[in-house]
Amino acid sequence: MKMPGARMVLEALKREGVDVVFGLPGGAVLPIYDVLYDFEGLRHILVRQEAAAGHAAEGYARTTGKVGVCLVTSGPAATNLVTALQDAYMDSIPIVAFTGQVPTHLIGNDAFQEADNVGITRPCTKHNFLVKDGKDLGPIIREAFHLAATGRPGPVHVDLPKDVLVKEAEFLWPERIVLRSYNPTYDGHPGQIKRAARALVRSKRPVLYVGGGVISADANGELAELAELLQIPVTTTLMGLGAFPADHALSLGMLGMHGTYFANMAVHHSDVLVAIGARFDDRVTGKVDAFAPGAEIIHIDIDPSSISKNIKVHVPIVGDCRRVLRALVRAVREELGGAAPVPDARRAWHGQVDDWKRRFPLRYEWSDEVIKPQYVIEELSRLTGGDAWMVTGVGQHQMWTAQHYRFRSPRRWCTSGGLGTMGYGLPTAMGVQAADPSRLVVNVDGDGSFAMNSQELATCFTENLPVKTVIINNSGHGMVRQWQRIIYKERYCAIDLPGIPDWVKLAEAYGCVGLRVTRPSEVASAIEKMLSTPAPVVLDVCVDKDECVFPMVPAGGANTDMILAPPTREVRDKAARSQTGF
Q: Are residues 210 and 329 in the same domain?
C-alpha cells in the first residue's frame, strides 16, 4: 500500500502501540503534523521547549515500561533535544526520538535550520538512523523500537528529511525484527549462576547492591525472593529506589555519596557483594581502591560492557536481571538442600547492621522557626503513603527526596541519575502524568532547577496535566553552596537566587494554582491542600538556605570517609585537600 512518508510515520507508531507523542512542530516536520490533524488514536502533547519533549518521553517510559516517543523539527530543535537523549542514554531509558531534517538534496549545504543530527546524536544514543527512502520508514521505525526496548534499554534517534515525508512510497512493515549483529544475552551462564549461589550460601556478610536495571527488568519480585530466602540486606542506587520496599527490615536505603551510613558500612565490610542491574557509578563507589575491599563481587547485568568496567568483579553474569535472579534462586535452593538458610554468622551480621542503623540513622536538627527540607519530604511521604509517583530535579532536593521518601514500589520514582540534568523535573513529571491522568504525580524541585524548565507549567495547564510541584526554595543553587561551604572554605560565588521570580505569581500567570509556606507549622496543611487540588499546583516552600545534605562523601574519598554533620574546620580542610573534582 502506497502512502506519503508522513502518514507512514504515524501508522508505524500506531502499530507499535504508541498512544502519546510529546513534541513541538516546525517546518521540516509539518507534513507529519498535517496528517496528525485528523489522525485518530494518537494524543500529541505540545511542549514549550524541545528538551522537555525528550524528558516527558523519559517519564512516560520510566513509569510504564513502554517506549516513550518525542517529535521535534530540524536544526535547533534537534540540538535542544540532545540533553534529554544523553540523559536517557546514561540512565538506560527507552525512548524513540524523531527529528526533522532538510530535504535530502540539501543535506550538507548549510540549508536553513540544518544540523548534522545523526552526527550530533551518535554518541548519546543507542543507535540512530537517517531515512533516505520512504520505503525504509516502516522497517527503520520497527527496528528503532526494537533496539530501544531490548537488551540494555536506551534512546534511539530517527532523522526524517522533509522530502521523504512528502513523497509517496510503499509502506512495508516487518512482523519480526532479526538483526544479525544485535543479539542481547538474556539467560545467564548456568556455571556462573551456580558459582554465585555457592558464594551466597557460604557467605557470612552478604549484601545485595541493586540498580535501575532491576526496575527495567521488572525483577523486584525475584529480588525480594532472593533477599528473604537468605536474609540478605539490600541497598539500592539512586536509580534503583523502589526496587525493594524502604520499610522492609532488610532495606539499607541508598548507598554512595549521599547514602546512609549503614548502607556504606555494610558494603565496605561485606564478604560477598552482589551487584544487580547496577554499573558501579563513581557516586556509588567513591574511591575505587577502597570499595568493598574484602568482598567477592558478583555482577549481574544485561550489558556486557558494564561488567568490570569500573570495578573488577569475580563472578560476571551477563543476562536479564529477572531471568538471572529466577535461576539464582533455584540454584540457591539446590545448594541449601534443606539446610537452615541463616547460619549463626549471618545472625551476627544482622546484629552489626542493626547496630549501625540504631547508632547512625538519617537525622537533621529540628527548628520551630525555619522549615527544614527533610521535614517537607517526610510529610510528603507520610501524606501520600509512599505511593505517589515522585519526580525530582537535580540538586539537594533530589538527595533529600531519595533519603526521606519511603518508596514501596518500583516505577514510582523518576530522577536524572547519570547526567544530573537540572530542569529535568517538571517536563518528566508531565510525561508520567500523561501516561495516566488519574495518578498522583509530585515533582520535588529546587528553585534553581525548576527555573530551567518552568515554562512547561503552560503545558501542564493547557494539556490538563495536574502535576503537583513542591519547590524546596533555599534562594540559590544549594548543592553548589554546600560544596563551596565544605570544600572551598566558604568562598561563595555565583550561587544566590534572591527571590526572583515570585513562584506563586508565576504559577498563577500560567493558569496554575500557587501556594507558599514559610513556617514549619504550615507545611502539612499546605501539602494536604496541594494534594487535594484537581489542577497543576506549585507549592513554594521557603526552607533553611544553610541546610546541607548529610551524610556526604567528598569526591575522591572512600565511602568510609563519610561526613555525618556540618564539619569542623579541620575536617573541612581535609576534605579540601582530597578534592579531585565536583
A: yes
